[in-house]
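User: I'm curious whether this sequence folds into something compact or stays loose and floppy. Could you predict its structure so I can see for myself?
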Amino acid sequence: MDEIRGDEIQGEATRDGGVQGGEIRGTARGTAPVPLSVLDLVTVGQGGTASQALRTGVEIAQLAERRGFHRYWVAEHHSMPGVASSSPAVILAHTAAHTERIRLGSGGVMLPNHAPLVIAEQFGTLEAMAPGRVDLGLGRAPGTDGATAAALRRTDRLNEGADDFPQQLMELTRFLDDDFPDGHPYARIHAVPGPVQATAEGGVQSPARPPIWLLGSSGFSARLAGVLGLPFAFAHHFSAQNTVPALELYRDSFKPSTVLDAPYALIGVAALAADDEREARRQVLTGALSMLRLRSGRPGLVPTPEEAEAYSFSPMEREFVDNWLVNIVHGTADEVRSGLDDLAKRTGADELMITANAHGGEARLRSYGLIADAYGLPGA
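Assistant: Here's the prediction. I'll summarize afterward.
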Protein backbone atom coordinates (compact mmCIF):
# COMPACT_ATOMS: atom_id res chain seq x y z
CA MET A 1 0.00 0.00 0.00
CA ASP A 2 2.93 2.37 0.46
CA GLU A 3 3.12 2.86 -3.30
CA ILE A 4 -0.55 3.89 -3.37
CA ARG A 5 0.32 7.26 -1.79
CA GLY A 6 -2.84 7.26 0.29
CA ASP A 7 -2.70 10.93 1.24
CA GLU A 8 -3.07 11.93 -2.41
CA ILE A 9 -5.68 9.30 -3.21
CA GLN A 10 -7.84 10.41 -0.32
CA GLY A 11 -8.27 13.86 -1.78
CA GLU A 12 -9.20 12.46 -5.18
CA ALA A 13 -11.43 9.55 -4.24
CA THR A 14 -13.58 11.04 -1.49
CA ARG A 15 -14.58 14.49 -2.69
CA ASP A 16 -18.17 15.38 -1.90
CA GLY A 17 -20.34 14.20 -4.77
CA GLY A 18 -23.58 14.71 -2.91
CA VAL A 19 -22.76 11.79 -0.60
CA GLN A 20 -22.88 12.19 3.16
CA GLY A 21 -22.54 9.79 6.09
CA GLY A 22 -26.27 9.96 6.72
CA GLU A 23 -26.85 7.93 3.57
CA ILE A 24 -24.43 5.30 4.82
CA ARG A 25 -25.19 4.76 8.48
CA GLY A 26 -28.20 2.61 9.30
CA THR A 27 -30.49 2.62 12.32
CA ALA A 28 -30.90 -0.40 14.58
CA ARG A 29 -34.53 -1.51 14.81
CA GLY A 30 -36.31 -3.40 17.54
CA THR A 31 -33.85 -5.02 19.93
CA ALA A 32 -31.15 -5.61 17.30
CA PRO A 33 -27.71 -4.46 18.51
CA VAL A 34 -26.91 -2.86 15.14
CA PRO A 35 -28.74 -2.30 11.84
CA LEU A 36 -29.56 -5.53 10.00
CA SER A 37 -29.33 -5.90 6.22
CA VAL A 38 -29.56 -8.62 3.56
CA LEU A 39 -26.99 -9.99 1.13
CA ASP A 40 -28.59 -12.11 -1.60
CA LEU A 41 -26.70 -14.48 -3.90
CA VAL A 42 -29.94 -15.30 -5.80
CA THR A 43 -29.21 -18.99 -5.37
CA VAL A 44 -30.72 -21.57 -7.71
CA GLY A 45 -31.54 -24.96 -6.23
CA GLN A 46 -31.91 -28.29 -7.98
CA GLY A 47 -35.36 -28.48 -9.55
CA GLY A 48 -35.64 -24.69 -9.67
CA THR A 49 -34.98 -22.06 -12.31
CA ALA A 50 -33.19 -18.74 -12.42
CA SER A 51 -36.58 -17.08 -12.95
CA GLN A 52 -37.84 -18.55 -9.69
CA ALA A 53 -34.65 -17.50 -7.88
CA LEU A 54 -35.00 -13.94 -9.13
CA ARG A 55 -38.64 -13.81 -8.03
CA THR A 56 -37.57 -15.04 -4.62
CA GLY A 57 -34.95 -12.28 -4.51
CA VAL A 58 -37.66 -9.68 -4.99
CA GLU A 59 -39.77 -11.32 -2.28
CA ILE A 60 -36.80 -11.23 0.10
CA ALA A 61 -36.19 -7.54 -0.67
CA GLN A 62 -39.85 -6.78 -0.07
CA LEU A 63 -39.84 -8.70 3.20
CA ALA A 64 -36.66 -6.91 4.25
CA GLU A 65 -38.21 -3.54 3.45
CA ARG A 66 -41.42 -4.36 5.32
CA ARG A 67 -39.57 -5.62 8.40
CA GLY A 68 -37.08 -2.76 8.75
CA PHE A 69 -33.86 -4.24 7.37
CA HIS A 70 -31.65 -1.36 6.23
CA ARG A 71 -30.41 -2.50 2.82
CA TYR A 72 -30.58 -5.29 0.25
CA TRP A 73 -27.42 -6.07 -1.72
CA VAL A 74 -26.62 -8.60 -4.44
CA ALA A 75 -23.18 -9.99 -5.24
CA GLU A 76 -21.50 -10.41 -8.62
CA HIS A 77 -20.55 -14.01 -9.40
CA HIS A 78 -19.89 -15.73 -12.71
CA SER A 79 -19.95 -19.24 -14.20
CA MET A 80 -21.66 -20.74 -11.13
CA PRO A 81 -24.89 -22.60 -11.97
CA GLY A 82 -26.21 -22.20 -8.44
CA VAL A 83 -25.76 -18.41 -8.29
CA ALA A 84 -27.87 -16.21 -10.58
CA SER A 85 -26.42 -12.83 -9.55
CA SER A 86 -24.00 -12.30 -12.43
CA SER A 87 -25.51 -8.89 -13.31
CA PRO A 88 -26.09 -6.85 -10.13
CA ALA A 89 -27.19 -3.68 -11.94
CA VAL A 90 -29.90 -5.55 -13.84
CA ILE A 91 -31.17 -7.27 -10.70
CA LEU A 92 -31.15 -4.02 -8.73
CA ALA A 93 -33.13 -2.21 -11.43
CA HIS A 94 -35.78 -4.92 -11.26
CA THR A 95 -35.79 -4.85 -7.46
CA ALA A 96 -36.07 -1.06 -7.40
CA ALA A 97 -39.29 -1.34 -9.39
CA HIS A 98 -40.77 -3.61 -6.71
CA THR A 99 -39.66 -1.75 -3.57
CA GLU A 100 -40.03 1.80 -2.28
CA ARG A 101 -37.71 2.57 0.63
CA ILE A 102 -35.02 -0.02 1.29
CA ARG A 103 -31.50 0.80 0.16
CA LEU A 104 -30.32 -1.31 -2.77
CA GLY A 105 -26.75 -2.04 -3.71
CA SER A 106 -23.97 -4.27 -4.93
CA GLY A 107 -22.10 -6.45 -2.54
CA GLY A 108 -20.30 -6.10 -4.75
CA VAL A 109 -19.45 -5.20 -8.29
CA MET A 110 -16.01 -6.64 -9.07
CA LEU A 111 -14.43 -3.50 -10.50
CA PRO A 112 -11.48 -5.11 -12.37
CA ASN A 113 -14.04 -7.02 -14.49
CA HIS A 114 -15.46 -3.77 -15.91
CA ALA A 115 -14.54 -0.43 -17.42
CA PRO A 116 -15.08 2.23 -14.72
CA LEU A 117 -17.18 4.32 -17.13
CA VAL A 118 -19.61 1.43 -17.59
CA ILE A 119 -20.10 1.07 -13.84
CA ALA A 120 -20.58 4.85 -13.47
CA GLU A 121 -23.26 4.74 -16.17
CA GLN A 122 -25.01 1.70 -14.70
CA PHE A 123 -25.16 3.07 -11.18
CA GLY A 124 -25.98 6.56 -12.37
CA THR A 125 -28.96 4.98 -14.08
CA LEU A 126 -29.92 3.12 -10.90
CA GLU A 127 -29.65 6.34 -8.90
CA ALA A 128 -32.01 8.01 -11.38
CA MET A 129 -34.45 5.10 -10.97
CA ALA A 130 -34.29 5.03 -7.17
CA PRO A 131 -32.93 8.39 -5.96
CA GLY A 132 -31.16 8.27 -2.63
CA ARG A 133 -31.48 4.49 -2.29
CA VAL A 134 -28.47 3.09 -4.17
CA ASP A 135 -25.13 1.84 -2.78
CA LEU A 136 -22.13 0.99 -4.95
CA GLY A 137 -20.07 -1.71 -3.25
CA LEU A 138 -16.82 -2.55 -5.03
CA GLY A 139 -14.49 -5.53 -4.82
CA ARG A 140 -11.19 -6.30 -6.51
CA ALA A 141 -11.55 -10.10 -6.74
CA PRO A 142 -12.90 -11.65 -9.96
CA GLY A 143 -15.93 -13.30 -8.35
CA THR A 144 -15.13 -16.46 -10.29
CA ASP A 145 -12.31 -18.72 -11.46
CA GLY A 146 -9.28 -17.51 -13.39
CA ALA A 147 -10.42 -18.71 -16.81
CA THR A 148 -13.80 -16.99 -16.48
CA ALA A 149 -12.12 -13.82 -15.22
CA ALA A 150 -9.88 -13.87 -18.28
CA ALA A 151 -12.95 -14.16 -20.51
CA LEU A 152 -14.66 -11.28 -18.71
CA ARG A 153 -11.63 -9.02 -18.91
CA ARG A 154 -10.40 -10.24 -22.31
CA THR A 155 -6.92 -10.65 -20.87
CA ASP A 156 -4.99 -13.25 -18.92
CA ARG A 157 -3.09 -10.59 -16.96
CA LEU A 158 -5.38 -10.96 -13.96
CA ASN A 159 -2.97 -9.82 -11.26
CA GLU A 160 -2.55 -6.54 -13.03
CA GLY A 161 -6.27 -5.86 -12.71
CA ALA A 162 -6.20 -6.33 -8.94
CA ASP A 163 -3.02 -4.27 -8.58
CA ASP A 164 -4.63 -1.45 -10.55
CA PHE A 165 -7.67 -1.35 -8.27
CA PRO A 166 -6.85 1.96 -6.51
CA GLN A 167 -6.38 3.69 -9.85
CA GLN A 168 -9.57 2.15 -11.25
CA LEU A 169 -11.37 3.36 -8.14
CA MET A 170 -10.15 6.92 -8.64
CA GLU A 171 -11.21 6.84 -12.28
CA LEU A 172 -14.68 5.56 -11.36
CA THR A 173 -15.03 8.24 -8.69
CA ARG A 174 -14.15 10.98 -11.15
CA PHE A 175 -16.71 9.68 -13.64
CA LEU A 176 -19.35 9.61 -10.89
CA ASP A 177 -18.50 13.16 -9.83
CA ASP A 178 -17.82 14.37 -13.39
CA ASP A 179 -14.67 16.20 -12.35
CA PHE A 180 -11.67 15.05 -14.36
CA PRO A 181 -9.19 17.94 -14.41
CA ASP A 182 -8.63 20.03 -17.52
CA GLY A 183 -6.19 18.33 -19.84
CA HIS A 184 -7.07 14.81 -18.72
CA PRO A 185 -7.85 12.46 -21.64
CA TYR A 186 -11.30 11.84 -20.14
CA ALA A 187 -12.09 15.46 -19.25
CA ARG A 188 -14.73 15.71 -21.98
CA ILE A 189 -16.27 12.30 -21.30
CA HIS A 190 -19.34 12.21 -19.07
CA ALA A 191 -21.15 9.38 -17.33
CA VAL A 192 -24.85 9.82 -18.07
CA PRO A 193 -27.09 9.91 -16.10
CA GLY A 194 -24.87 12.02 -13.91
CA PRO A 195 -23.85 15.47 -12.68
CA VAL A 196 -23.12 16.78 -16.18
CA GLN A 197 -26.86 17.04 -16.79
CA ALA A 198 -27.10 19.70 -14.11
CA THR A 199 -24.64 21.88 -16.04
CA ALA A 200 -26.39 21.57 -19.41
CA GLU A 201 -28.68 24.40 -20.50
CA GLY A 202 -31.94 24.01 -18.61
CA GLY A 203 -30.49 21.10 -16.65
CA VAL A 204 -32.02 20.16 -13.30
CA GLN A 205 -30.38 16.76 -12.75
CA SER A 206 -29.45 16.14 -9.11
CA PRO A 207 -25.68 16.01 -8.54
CA ALA A 208 -26.10 13.25 -5.95
CA ARG A 209 -24.53 9.89 -6.67
CA PRO A 210 -24.39 6.50 -4.93
CA PRO A 211 -21.98 6.21 -1.99
CA ILE A 212 -19.00 3.96 -2.68
CA TRP A 213 -18.22 1.08 -0.33
CA LEU A 214 -15.07 -1.03 -0.47
CA LEU A 215 -15.49 -4.76 0.04
CA GLY A 216 -12.86 -7.23 1.09
CA SER A 217 -11.87 -10.51 2.71
CA SER A 218 -8.31 -9.48 3.63
CA GLY A 219 -6.37 -6.45 4.75
CA PHE A 220 -5.83 -4.68 1.42
CA SER A 221 -9.29 -3.21 0.96
CA ALA A 222 -9.62 -2.66 4.73
CA ARG A 223 -6.61 -0.38 4.74
CA LEU A 224 -7.54 1.32 1.49
CA ALA A 225 -11.06 2.04 2.75
CA GLY A 226 -9.57 3.49 5.92
CA VAL A 227 -7.09 5.70 4.07
CA LEU A 228 -9.88 6.99 1.84
CA GLY A 229 -12.39 7.50 4.63
CA LEU A 230 -14.91 5.18 2.94
CA PRO A 231 -17.33 2.68 4.48
CA PHE A 232 -16.05 -0.90 4.52
CA ALA A 233 -17.81 -4.25 4.14
CA PHE A 234 -15.99 -7.41 5.19
CA ALA A 235 -16.85 -10.91 3.97
CA HIS A 236 -17.01 -12.65 7.35
CA HIS A 237 -19.24 -15.33 5.83
CA PHE A 238 -16.30 -16.89 3.98
CA SER A 239 -13.23 -15.39 5.68
CA ALA A 240 -14.13 -15.44 9.36
CA GLN A 241 -10.57 -15.84 10.61
CA ASN A 242 -9.63 -12.48 9.08
CA THR A 243 -12.62 -10.46 10.32
CA VAL A 244 -11.28 -8.92 13.52
CA PRO A 245 -7.79 -8.15 12.14
CA ALA A 246 -9.28 -6.54 9.01
CA LEU A 247 -11.72 -4.39 11.00
CA GLU A 248 -8.93 -3.30 13.34
CA LEU A 249 -6.76 -2.38 10.35
CA TYR A 250 -9.65 -0.41 8.83
CA ARG A 251 -10.23 1.54 12.04
CA ASP A 252 -6.54 2.15 12.65
CA SER A 253 -6.07 3.39 9.06
CA PHE A 254 -9.18 5.54 8.97
CA LYS A 255 -8.89 9.19 7.99
CA PRO A 256 -12.00 11.40 8.14
CA SER A 257 -13.29 12.43 4.72
CA THR A 258 -16.18 14.30 3.14
CA VAL A 259 -17.97 10.93 3.14
CA LEU A 260 -17.47 9.83 6.75
CA ASP A 261 -16.16 11.50 9.87
CA ALA A 262 -15.68 8.13 11.65
CA PRO A 263 -15.28 4.50 10.52
CA TYR A 264 -18.35 2.54 9.49
CA ALA A 265 -18.00 -1.19 8.85
CA LEU A 266 -20.50 -3.90 8.15
CA ILE A 267 -19.80 -7.61 7.97
CA GLY A 268 -21.46 -10.23 5.81
CA VAL A 269 -22.80 -13.03 8.01
CA ALA A 270 -24.09 -16.43 6.95
CA ALA A 271 -27.12 -17.09 9.14
CA LEU A 272 -30.21 -19.24 8.85
CA ALA A 273 -33.07 -19.64 11.30
CA ALA A 274 -35.70 -22.38 11.18
CA ASP A 275 -38.53 -23.59 13.35
CA ASP A 276 -36.29 -26.19 14.97
CA GLU A 277 -32.56 -26.87 15.19
CA ARG A 278 -32.65 -30.01 13.06
CA GLU A 279 -34.36 -28.25 10.16
CA ALA A 280 -31.83 -25.42 10.32
CA ARG A 281 -29.02 -27.98 10.15
CA ARG A 282 -30.63 -29.68 7.13
CA GLN A 283 -30.88 -26.36 5.32
CA VAL A 284 -27.36 -25.08 5.94
CA LEU A 285 -25.89 -28.45 4.97
CA THR A 286 -27.14 -27.85 1.41
CA GLY A 287 -25.06 -24.69 1.19
CA ALA A 288 -22.03 -26.43 2.69
CA LEU A 289 -22.21 -29.24 0.13
CA SER A 290 -22.64 -26.68 -2.63
CA MET A 291 -19.51 -24.85 -1.44
CA LEU A 292 -17.58 -28.11 -1.19
CA ARG A 293 -18.38 -28.87 -4.81
CA LEU A 294 -17.44 -25.35 -5.86
CA ARG A 295 -14.10 -25.54 -4.07
CA SER A 296 -13.53 -28.94 -5.68
CA GLY A 297 -14.01 -27.52 -9.16
CA ARG A 298 -17.49 -29.00 -9.56
CA PRO A 299 -19.90 -26.06 -9.22
CA GLY A 300 -23.56 -26.89 -9.64
CA LEU A 301 -27.06 -26.09 -8.49
CA VAL A 302 -27.69 -26.02 -4.74
CA PRO A 303 -28.54 -29.60 -3.70
CA THR A 304 -31.73 -30.53 -1.89
CA PRO A 305 -31.67 -31.18 1.87
CA GLU A 306 -32.37 -34.85 1.15
CA GLU A 307 -29.34 -35.15 -1.12
CA ALA A 308 -27.11 -33.30 1.33
CA GLU A 309 -28.20 -35.58 4.21
CA ALA A 310 -27.63 -38.71 2.13
CA TYR A 311 -24.25 -37.61 0.73
CA SER A 312 -21.32 -39.83 1.77
CA PHE A 313 -18.58 -37.42 2.83
CA SER A 314 -14.97 -38.55 2.81
CA PRO A 315 -12.99 -37.71 5.97
CA MET A 316 -11.39 -34.73 4.19
CA GLU A 317 -14.76 -33.54 2.88
CA ARG A 318 -16.33 -33.92 6.31
CA GLU A 319 -13.57 -31.79 7.82
CA PHE A 320 -14.19 -29.07 5.20
CA VAL A 321 -17.95 -29.09 5.80
CA ASP A 322 -17.60 -29.06 9.59
CA ASN A 323 -15.21 -26.11 9.41
CA TRP A 324 -17.56 -24.32 7.03
CA LEU A 325 -20.60 -24.84 9.25
CA VAL A 326 -18.81 -23.46 12.32
CA ASN A 327 -19.06 -19.98 10.83
CA ILE A 328 -22.75 -20.21 9.89
CA VAL A 329 -25.07 -18.95 12.61
CA HIS A 330 -27.95 -21.40 12.50
CA GLY A 331 -30.65 -22.90 14.66
CA THR A 332 -33.89 -21.62 16.09
CA ALA A 333 -34.67 -17.91 15.93
CA ASP A 334 -33.50 -17.44 19.52
CA GLU A 335 -30.25 -19.29 18.83
CA VAL A 336 -29.58 -17.21 15.74
CA ARG A 337 -30.35 -14.00 17.61
CA SER A 338 -27.89 -14.99 20.33
CA GLY A 339 -25.23 -15.83 17.74
CA LEU A 340 -25.68 -12.54 15.92
CA ASP A 341 -25.59 -10.59 19.18
CA ASP A 342 -22.33 -12.30 20.12
CA LEU A 343 -20.82 -11.64 16.69
CA ALA A 344 -21.72 -7.96 16.79
CA LYS A 345 -20.18 -7.63 20.25
CA ARG A 346 -17.04 -9.60 19.37
CA THR A 347 -16.27 -7.73 16.15
CA GLY A 348 -17.65 -4.29 16.94
CA ALA A 349 -19.30 -4.25 13.50
CA ASP A 350 -21.56 -1.27 12.85
CA GLU A 351 -23.98 -3.37 10.79
CA LEU A 352 -24.70 -7.04 10.12
CA MET A 353 -25.57 -8.07 6.57
CA ILE A 354 -27.19 -11.49 6.66
CA THR A 355 -26.99 -13.99 3.84
CA ALA A 356 -29.23 -17.06 4.11
CA ASN A 357 -28.05 -19.78 1.75
CA ALA A 358 -30.31 -22.79 1.40
CA HIS A 359 -31.84 -24.89 -1.37
CA GLY A 360 -35.29 -23.36 -1.52
CA GLY A 361 -36.66 -19.85 -1.43
CA GLU A 362 -39.22 -20.75 1.21
CA ALA A 363 -36.51 -21.61 3.74
CA ARG A 364 -34.67 -18.38 3.09
CA LEU A 365 -37.79 -16.24 3.38
CA ARG A 366 -38.78 -18.07 6.55
CA SER A 367 -35.34 -17.44 8.02
CA TYR A 368 -35.42 -13.68 7.48
CA GLY A 369 -38.92 -13.54 8.92
CA LEU A 370 -37.92 -15.50 12.01
CA ILE A 371 -34.86 -13.30 12.61
CA ALA A 372 -37.03 -10.19 12.26
CA ASP A 373 -39.49 -11.65 14.78
CA ALA A 374 -36.69 -12.53 17.20
CA TYR A 375 -35.57 -8.91 17.27
CA GLY A 376 -39.07 -7.47 17.34
CA LEU A 377 -38.60 -5.68 14.05
CA PRO A 378 -41.65 -3.74 12.77
CA GLY A 379 -44.12 -4.93 10.15
CA ALA A 380 -44.85 -8.42 11.50
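Summary: Residues 277-295 form the longest helix (19 residues). The chain has a mean pLDDT of 90.
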